[in-house]
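BACKBONE GEOMETRY TOKENS:
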Amino acid sequence: MLLAAAAEMQALDRAAMEEFGIPGVVLMENAGRGVAGLVLEAFPSEAAGGVLVLSGPGNNGGDGFVIARHLHQAGVPVRVAALAPAEKFRNEAGVNLEIVRRSGIPLEFCPTEADVPGLAGRCRSAGLLVDAVFGTGLAREVTGRFAEIIRTMNDAGRPVVSVDVPSGLSADTGRPLGIAVAARMTATMALPKLGLVVWPGRELAGELRVVDIGLPPAALRRHPPAQELLDEAAARELVRPRPPDGHKGTFGHLLVLAGAPGKTGAAALAAIGALRSGPGLVTVGTPAGCQPVLAAKLTEAMTAGLAETADGTLAAAAWNGIRALLEGKRALAVGPGLGLDEEVQELVRRLAAEAPCPAVLDADALTALGTEAPRI
């Protein structure tokens, strides 16, 4: 599953409009209609008790106006609280504000701090809240009136459906920017955002649903996000059919460099996990003193002892042994339980620069790379 950072999602929206000619008002219409459909599907009884849409001064607020219109057309009692003066809603948001006005949907403007207490009462009396206050573009801490509005939604005791991201949540880091909405469901546009799948954003988002807003597949091919979540569907695509006459030599040989005194468990777990991922053969390279321990722990993996320091961790002199072990290997995993001795870090950096096969660096190996960038 592709994951979009805020800037990547903005680039995709621009591409849809500028490169493919899709008007922004069409994207907003698709977004709002999709969220309204999710509300009707997932919260029919709550919606029947009345929906309050809180719309902030931006495209997220414009989505809120579209949501309100589609709920109204479906017979749901809905009212809109616009959290800025009318003139602040421009372009597509302004168009949809005017449609709400002409459609007879109850609409009130709440542009000042004095409006918050009244808004709190309406939140408590609603069956469901739609959070369309801030979208993915929020980059600064939420303070003042908007912080109070978010606190009001959280304290109302009503389920909240957030539009795109819970208001106040960083779309990139998953951390609240001061304060964030705790949603029952987040309906995000086109692609999940990074901040919705990492903690604490994952918890604050509630159930995550993706709304198709009509982005052309070609736009994704031209401007692909750099991140991907390895979910079940993606993992299935990585598992290739195995020939009936295959054997352990058919499926590749993995070298795992891991372990140190007191940390052989990390090396054993890495080897067991590696075996479950599908290679035909796994060898664990580890300090010589740890090799007997790992040989006893591991039934399916092979083990090899390497030169070690006086403290029992891998020594720089292990390089030649590692290079010999790498012959014929299809992949390399480095890091679990290796420790952070200076000679270990030197080995890790050298492997990052010179490994002859695809490599996964984890745990202590990542720390070693963070200490000094490899010279590649």
